Amino acid sequence: MSVSVGSITFDSVSYDRDADVLYLSVGDPAQAVDFDESREGHALRYDAGGKLVGITIVGARRLHEQDGGIVVTPPQLRVDGDELAAALAAA
What pTM value is reported for the model? Predict the structure, then answer.
């Protein structure tokens, strides 16, 4: 089973029914080295290269039943300044 959030597909999905916590991981769950929180309060896990590798959603079943789905605001993406300057100059 896999779950997609935006353009990221999490192919490792685990649900703790007792705690109502959904764990989503890209590939096999691995040790994250950095953490952040989405606007909705979901834990975002990153690898050493800064790539999003996991999301932990507390209250997943409750949120799904309440709202019919779960909103996860993806992390802010940034375009490199040199790439942006080149694109703007070419326009």
Answer: 0.75
